[in-house]
């Protein structure tokens, strides 16, 4: 198969205008032993005949594609629960590995998860317990499961558990389960904390979150052991907090500086350094991303890590969103562009202009609020190719401009133009035979059915 024929085929597999008959033909393709293009298997809104073809496909990799599709309905994926291949069942159990950002993955029904947890193959059970897509109700039900690995997963979802389930896990016969349960509960139990501190595997985490006896806190400060973890402990006595605020270790001072009880004046009096690309991950702010009071404290702080963590919230009210948008912190702007539904257009444009073809720039460009009108006038002749590509987004861009941009020196600009339905048909057909444009041209919804059929035929897909 010629390489650009394969590229065109991948594009056609993603084409939203692909007729059902051609989709079925494509899904039945063996791909020279590799199955049909993954893009066809993972399409949104697969009709029942297409799902049936995938379920019966002899290549397990094709069925894995459906099992891990973020776009497939859970009921469609669930039909693979009895698949003969453990690789397929494990893929189903875990779910989508790399879902597109801003994609919400619907979980499998609890009953299907229960069957996968009882699967004869250990890889299936392990994949299920590692899955990030389990419902809270299913995870809570694991607290009484016979498998310690399942109970361990439940212990890590402590807040969802009933008091009886928590008590049972704290007395679990399995040591890792007991440790996880104790770490979840030790913030309000000094006895549990003291026990955990005697275990090298849990000492650092217990120092970070556990309810401490003063003698233990003083001992670890004196020994200079796990000081960064200790510096963030909510129960650390105030005088020891002050001592660590002047510690010679920069990481310790930084950990103290983000403590929630500090007033703004004291917080900013600490000698700390935040690196330009440090991502905000302050736990008490992250846990309060839906709490208006927490968001206001963090967003109005002069501390970069608090502001960056607040920028993770999609719940920022308009005044705090405007405030963060004016901080002139590129990290804050990047995070707002990823997480907030109402981020100002000018922030999105700054992220895009600063970062070009990076992930954050892509997230900004694909944001629903990214501007469209006026881009052709502003950027069609811009010296930077990444900016010229923006002209394709403008609904006022003419077919002549789209054709001109399909010959642009920058390949990504050419590809954007090749996928645009305003591209004149002769140039679109020509682009199907240009290696770096074939895939983009294949996705073009203006591509006639006869040309899609020809792509399948040239790529060796049987009629």
Describe the overall structure:
The chain is mainly α and 463 residues long. The chain has 34 helices and no strands. Helix 7 runs parallel beside helix 9 (122-130) and helix 26 (345-355) runs antiparallel to helix 27 (359-365). The longest helix is centred in the N-terminal third of the chain and has 12 residues, at 3-14. The radius of gyration is 27 Å and the shape is flat. The mean pLDDT is 95.
Shape: flat
Which class of secondary structure composition applies to the elements?
Answer: mainly alpha
Number of helical segments with 4 or more residues: 34
Q: Main beta sheet: strand number and arrangement?
A: none
Strand content: under 5%
The number of distinct β-strands equals 0
Q: What's the alpha carbon Rg, rounded to whole Å?
A: 27 Å
Low-confidence stretches: none
- The mean pLDDT is 95
The span between the termini is 16 Å
Helix content: 55-70%
Task: Please describe the structure with a list of short key phrases separated by commas or semicolons.
34 helices, mainly alpha, single chain, 56% helix, 463 residues
Could you give the topology of this structure?
Blueprint: H1 3-14, H2 20-27, H3 38-41, H4 48-55, H5 60-67, H6 74-78, H7 86-94, H8 110-117, H9 122-130, H10 136-141, H11 148-155, H12 163-170, H13 175-185, H14 190-197, H15 203-209, H16 214-223, H17 227-231, H18 238-245, H19 250-257, H20 264-269, H21 283-286, H22 292-299, H23 304-310, H24 318-325, H25 330-339, H26 345-355, H27 359-365, H28 375-379, H29 385-388, H30 399-405, H31 411-418, H32 425-431, H33 438-443, H34 449-458
């Amino acid at each position: 198969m010629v390489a650009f024929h394969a590229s065109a085929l991948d594009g056609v597999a993603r084409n939203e205008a692909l007729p059902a008959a051609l989709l079925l033909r494509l899904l039945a393709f063996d791909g020279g032993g590799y199955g049909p293009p993954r893009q066809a298997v993972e399409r949104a809104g697969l009709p029942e005949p297409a799902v049936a073809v995938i379920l019966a496909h002899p290549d397990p990799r094709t069925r894995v594609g459906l099992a891990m599709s973020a776009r497939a309905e859970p009921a469609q994926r669930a039909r693979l629960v009895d698949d003969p291949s453990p690789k397929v069942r494990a893929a189903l159990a875990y779910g989508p590995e790399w879902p597109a950002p801003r994609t919400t993955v619907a979980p499998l029904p609890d009953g299907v998860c229960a069957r996968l947890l009882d699967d004869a193959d250990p890889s299936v059970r392990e994949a299920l317990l590692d899955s990030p897509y389990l419902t809270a109700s299913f995870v809570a039900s694991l607290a009484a499961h016979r498998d310690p690995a399942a109970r361990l997963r439940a212990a890590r979802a402590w807040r969802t558990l009933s008091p009886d389930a928590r008590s049972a896990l704290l007395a679990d016969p399995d040591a890792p389960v007991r440790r996880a349960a104790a770490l979840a509960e030790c913030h309000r139990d000094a006895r549990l904390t003291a026990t955990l501190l005697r275990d090298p595997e849990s000492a650092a985490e217990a120092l970070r979150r556990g309810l401490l006896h003063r003698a233990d806190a003083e001992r670890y400060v004196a020994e200079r052991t796990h000081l960064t973890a200790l510096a963030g402990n909510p129960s650390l006595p105030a005088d020891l907090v002050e001592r660590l605020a002047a510690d010679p270790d920069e990481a310790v001072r930084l950990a103290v500086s983000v403590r929630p009880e500090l007033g703004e004046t004291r917080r900013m009096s600490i000698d700390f350094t935040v690196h330009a690309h440090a991502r905000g991950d302050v736990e008490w702010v992250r846990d309060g991303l839906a709490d208006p009071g927490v968001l206001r404290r963090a967003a109005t702080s002069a501390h970069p890590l608090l502001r960056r963590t607040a920028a993770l919230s999609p719940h920022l009210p308009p005044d705090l969103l405007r405030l963060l948008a004016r901080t002139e912190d590129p990290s804050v702007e990047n995070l707002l562009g990823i997480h907030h539904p109402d981020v100002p257009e000018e922030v999105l444009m700054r992220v895009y202009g600063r970062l070009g073809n990076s992930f954050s720039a892509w997230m900004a460009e694909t944001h629903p609020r990214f501007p469209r009108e006026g881009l052709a006038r502003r950027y069609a002749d811009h010296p930077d190719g990444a900016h010229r590509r923006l002209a394709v987004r403008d609904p006022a861009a003419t077919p002549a401009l789209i054709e001109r941009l399909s010959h642009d020196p920058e390949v990504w600009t050419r590809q954007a133009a090749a996928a645009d339905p305003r591209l004149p048909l002769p140039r679109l057909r020509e682009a199907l035979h240009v290696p770096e444009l074939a895939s983009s041209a294949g996705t073009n919804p203006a591509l006639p059915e006869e040309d899609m059929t020809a792509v399948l035929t040239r790529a060796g897909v049987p009629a």
